[in-house]
Amino acid sequence: MDMNHLEQVKANVLKCMGCGVCRGVWDRRDEAMCPVWATGIGFEDSTPRGRVTVAQDLLEGHFGYSLPLADSLYRCTDCASCAVTCDAMDPETGKPIIDVPGVVRAMRMDLVENSLVPPHVRDYFKAVYINGNPYRISQEERGRWAQGSHVPAYSGQEYLLYVGDVGSFDERGMHMARFVAYALERGDADFGILGSREMSDGNDAYALGESGLLAHLAEANINTFKKAGIRKVISLDPHSYNTFRNDYPGMGAEFESFHYTQVLSGIMKSGAFRVQSYRAKVTYHDPCYLGRHNNTYEAPREILNSIPGLELVEMKRNKKNAFCCGGGGGNFYTDMLGGGENSANRIRVREAVETGAEILAVACPLCAKMLEDGIRAEALEDRLLVKDVAEILIESLGST
Amino acid sequence: MTETKDRENALFERMCAIVGSGHVTVEEFARRAYTRAPFYALGGGGRGKTPGIVVRPGTTEEVSEIVKLANETLTPIVPKGGGGSVSTFPPQHVGGNNNILIDTHRMNSILDIDTDYMTVTAECGVILSQLSEAVRKEGFHIYTVDVPIHMDTVGGVLSGFLGGGEPSDMATCGTMNDYLLGLKLVLPTGEVLQTGGGPGTNVHQKKFLHREAGAPDITGMFLGDGGSFGVKTEATFTIHPYPQVYLPGISDMGTDESMWKAFNQLVCTEPYPYTRLLAFREPGGTWYFVHIIRAHSKEDAGLRKKTLENIIRANGGGPAQVGDEVMQIANMFSARRLGQQTLPVGSTMTYFGEALIPRRQSLEYLKDINALLDETVGDLDIYKRVDFVVPYLRATTVTGVLLYFGKGTTRDEASKRMYQRSLKRMEALFTKKYGGWTETCQGESAAHSASAWSPAYKNLMKLLKRSLDPNNILMPGLWRV
Fold it and tell me: Structure pTM?
């Protein structure tokens, strides 16, 4: 059985001492950081340590890849909490020796190459291959979110606003895309959108192990960007930001990548926004692909902290210790992790409520959707409202 | 679950009927994951024994049904908690083929925190950091192990690792089992037993009293039993008002002689002038004390500090002027004792060569273990090496060498070398010369410890095991007696 990708990370796998701290908690907190482990649904193989153990056993030939193993591996949300809880540090870099998310990705890539993917994952790949997006909606519909607004098509502006799949096709994401575009407009940012010329970014396809699909999508997007002369890209979605920043440069991309909160934060600092009082207690949820994967924690907070009257309160797990909403690693589309009382989004919503905040601020359309689902499941609609950072900013400007 | 796998394990359907199909697996990748423990190859030369089936019960009643089924089919059982044992678990010599591994993780509820009687009752699958945090939120403190607080379960730590582990303040508080009031457990026959003075020994009493109230301390028999006398499902502990004052400090103690005089004087002082105390040094370097005082008032903390400083000064020590390197070690040790998993950047911790030592033999042990490590792994890339001595109440210390391997040595390489070259000699050192392993009751180490039992003790243990477990179902062969 082919395990080329796992072989490539073998040295990494063998360094794990199996201490198991990754399956536990961080910084004397009392709850598991790994969203899979936190749900309580899994056996030991569902823990980060268990996944490395599985990798070792595969490499030693104790068993091969199988569909039941694929079910286990596809529960991981690629949140990278195991990378910050890892007890083993590299003597040179001070970073964790074991890149568990990378090991999981390698095994998923092998599963793809061995045609051993669960039906939900297969359906996701198929939809993206055929339609250019996982929603099975015509590409022509991509710019629908901007209809009726003044958002211009890209024609040489300083920035491209890349909206991504959820911002283009999901009602919640489209709502967020409109606020982000409006905020950029109010900040006099020079930007345009690609509409139907935008393709899926490939981040989640890659997280699910389909490197070929990422390459295919990246090639299409990079060509489009190059032809249009795009040099700077603002992503609505941290998933897009992650792959643009970390994967696309290796595939020929030559553009600068920003998350929209970074751009809005810069505009805020320039004084271009005339913010008014906004009386609300707000807590902010760090998206994994913006936070742990790309170390961006301050930009969204800088925006929120610049709004007079807004009281920003932190959840007990925040920044690099933030708990995942469950929507990463492709799980937003495949739902391999499943629901239940201790599903990641419900745990996270309970943490937000503990702060006493009435608004749960987000900076990712997938997080927005996951957390709104969590609020409904917890029947907390009257106590907590999910709002995007741009939406809060716009409301503080006194006009929507 | 594949049909083939179902057929392969005749217990599967019946287990599913007890706990639900989502909580049973016979998949090899899942079963083998349970054989992994820290330090990989140490102790048993590799991984623990692969179970035939893994089951995750959610209640005491389900555990009881599983144990009864095991008796009916004469299938050995291995209970497992958080998987933090540094000694191979399950041991290769325990349990025959296709044994049942009980994963207690689902039994993770804190059942009651009684702030009036100052007790907490928790299911035995609760992770210790969860227990500690739940109690702290109520303004109380519980003495739980420090490493690895984030993964050890209540049941696991009471069954292994000194039958209660090393709490952060073990220098003055002893082990966790000193605060245990009673256990609910499933005996090897499937019968459920509540131990402890109170509900265990007097059916009319609902509150827990001292363990000896109404009967001999049967609870103690199940501590450090490696899970072989019963499967623990609930435990009740005393809790204490949370000490608000925290006074950390570090002192330069100079040579062996001055450190050792001060150490012995401090350990014998009443009341203890510290809550935590540890001595450490890099080889050839000066000794340092890290001392932490926790108290309920500044006055109490101040008095203790004064006594502590007087003893240190009288023996030639004083406040330490230390650089980053020493502070890094001090912080790491303090953090370790606080339960945080902080390690100095630039290291890959691989080995604690620690053992429980009669206090007066601590420095002699350090010489022995260092010589052994020099001979066996001294040529490997070692980033840092630290000798340490931590008092465990008055008579005993946990003494050892902390080896941080550098990047030039993989954990696997270090572990294999430790096993191939060091283990037998360590066994002799620990068991025959100094009295016992730190992991006395854990997995593979249980047999090493049992090898030193007197004939009378061995006979009693055999008798107890036969009486409690006539079919030899729970952890059969653990002690190799």
Answer: 0.91
